[in-house]
Structure formats: C-alpha cells, structure tokens
C-alpha cells in the first residue's frame, strides 16, 4: 500500500495502485476518460425569488443588477442549520486573515446563527495550494474544504476523500437546499467527477470575466475619445495618453482580454472544423503577441507591466489610463480611489471590421468546495450549513454574512451597508472565508455608484450575445491534471520574453510544436473523448 504522500508526488503509477486513497475504485482506472468524465443528472435549477433587480435580465448570463441594497432585507431561513456539533473546515482568503473566533464578535455571532461552532483553518490564497497538499497528506482538511482545482488526479482524490453528493443534490433532491438550487447548470458541471456530484460551486458567473477598464476621468481631462475601439484605435489612444515624464502610460498590463475579443480567439480550447484547437495554435494568437510586443516597443505599457503586476495601484493612482481586470473589481477600484473625479468606463472591443468583439467569459465558478465522507445525517447537516452560506443578495442572511452586525461592523448610507474599521478586520473586508465554501450568485452591485452599475450593465448587454464560456469547463484530462501547469508556465514565460523583446516572435512556432508534442496533443485527445462521453459538440 502506498502512502498519501506518494500520491501527492503526482505519480501515475502511484495513483493507479490506489492503496493510498482508501480503496478508491476510480484510481485504478486513472486514464479511463469515459469513467472520469461520466455525466450525471445535474441538480434542478430553481431561481431564488428575491428582490427584483433594478435592471432587466436581458440575457441568461446577465447577473442581477442593483443600484442599492434592499431597504428591508427578508429573513429566508427558518431556525438554525447546525445541531450543536463542531464543524471544521479549510478555506483561503485574499484579504488579511481575520481575528480568531475567541477575539472576533462577528465569528461568535456567526456560530450562534449556524447553531454549530465553526472551526476554520484559514490560509492566504497564495499559500493555499501548498497548504492543501499538506492537509491532504495529514488528513486535516476538515468537514468542509475548498478544493485546489489544479490538484493532480482530482477526480480520484475526490472519489476517495469527498462525499458523493449525487443522491442529495441530483435532480429535484437539491430542492431541500433552495439556495444551492439557485446555482445554474454551468456551475454544477464543474462539480461532477467520475459520474458523481463531488462538490458544490463557489459561483462568480460573468463577473469573473476579464475586461478592458479605462479611467474615463483621465480620458476626459486629456480630451481623448476611446469609444468602442479596434486594435488600431487602442494603440492610437494609448500613444495619445502616454507621457513618461508625467508617470502616465496607456496600459497597466498588456490588454490581452480586449485583443483576444477583437481577434476572435478561442476561450482556451474550441472546436473548429470538427477538431479541438487551442488558442495558442492559431495565427491570431501570434498576431496578439505581435501587437502586445509593438505596444511594449512603443512604450505605452507601464515599464513594469509585463514583468510585474501592480496594476491595481497603477490604475487607481493614474499611472495607467487603462488596465485589464474583472467586472467584480470595479467596486474595489472605487473604494481605493483618492481622486474625487475618479470614474471607470468599459469600452466595448471591436474587430477590425467594426463588429463587436467575441468576449471570453470567465469560468462559471471561482472554485468548488467538498464535504468529508460521513453518515447521511452528518452529510445533510453540512449541506444545510453550505445552503445557509449560499443565501443570496438582498436577504437578511446575506446582509449579516457579508457585513456583520449593524453599528459594530457596518453603518448604513441610505440603505447601503458600509463596513466600519472593525468590519474590515473582523468580517475580512466583507469577504469572510465562508464564501469559499459556498456562495450565492454574484450580483452587479456597486453601492454608491449607480452610474457604474449602468455602465457595466450596458457593456454586458452589448457583449453577451456573442461572448463565450470556456468550452472545456467541466471536462477532465489526466494529462492536463499532471502536465498542464508546466506547459502553461513554459508558454507564459515565452510570451513575456517575446513581449519584452528577449525572444523573437519566430520562436513561438517552435514552442507551439514542442507544446503539442509535450502534452497538448494528448490533452486535446482526452478532451475530445470527454466531450463525446458527455454529448458535447
């Protein structure tokens, strides 16, 4: 019998032996694409009938849009989800780690409302991957745990070490947990492995998609019109606003999201002419590299924008007029802003022929979270807790979960909650790590900035009809699991070298050939098999 630590080393032979994962049957067929990607009846989607959005949902992927928090949030749970027993867990955070429960009134109130003490092992997001591997080896993940999606042999790990939730969540069974049922099918596809529902989604939807953000206040001040740009327009505007003597550049980082949309690139993998191809293999991707290289040569990207990433600071302070970030980042930029005229716009990318660019949407989920195998009674208890964590926007439960206790953790500006200093610390800037164990749909809500809500809504309304989700999301490739990170690192490194002029553009062709030979062709074949198994086209 091999140890768990041996399995963590990523050895296919170790995984195939299966002994270190509690007799998991799927580990013995670690390259059986059909078994690993076997579909299952997804949970029934039942949209939560909450407060009416201020703007209509004109597309199935459009998030609910709100100008203000509802004046009278409704309590939507009855009683407490817990049973008095301690619930343990592991989760990351991108914010400073909050005070422990014994020194944190928010956490104490959270335990009271749950009806079970919550003991969380919280890790800085950058360290979570390593901590996850160590916790797997030591069997210390707890009852509920956020899953490292890049973990090698993930289906085999989940079958061995996570509760199969199929009987509890498949089809109408999920209706016992109405806030989990508020997650759409696209999110649940990322939770299915080896023919079972092995996790719950941490939803983000289109709000996690990268877009081109512009400092509209600076453009207005400089008298420069960005409009709805083509690739040539982007370069012209960037040159017009760049002034190194004034510590101002056109872009914080290479605007790859906008350029990808303009050039019609795939969202990772895509079926073209009956064959799965990757963006990196296409001439349009090489064109993207050429354009970003020209931008670096022209001096319109921040001097550290390729090698380093401090884009949020540069964009906020005005060192960069444009940057690339998610829709959900807009609120954080307004919070960071020091200029009273600070204003963000979202230009719609267009191809050279003037058509709306094909925007590449982010994955439906930020991540997923799993439950330790247990008795049916314990599993139902933990699902009730996760269901409570997923209470949606506009509810009393959501207000507490995100903002804590009135007076101590937040005050009201009209009907909008605003975190106090204690709220920032104890509620983890409104992002207490339970949001990485379960969460509701991410709304388009920028309190105090109705114009920003309307701007983002109009942008999404324009781009969503032709935008594309990652086609390979919810498919599992063993080669991607074990070699994907290495392959991506190599190609990303060469991308930076080409952009910085340390390598010629011609090196890309040889690199792509090696990329295919070293694993991409195997990944392609496995994903094509997985698509066939799941009936995707």
UniProtKB/TrEMBL annotation:
InterPro entries: Bact_solute-bd_prot1, TAT_signal. It comes from the Bacteria. Gene3D superfamilies: Periplasmic binding protein-like II. Belongs to the bacterial solute-binding protein 1 family. This is Putative aldouronate transport system substrate-binding protein. The lineage of its organism: Bacteria, Bacillati, Actinomycetota, Actinomycetes, Propionibacteriales.
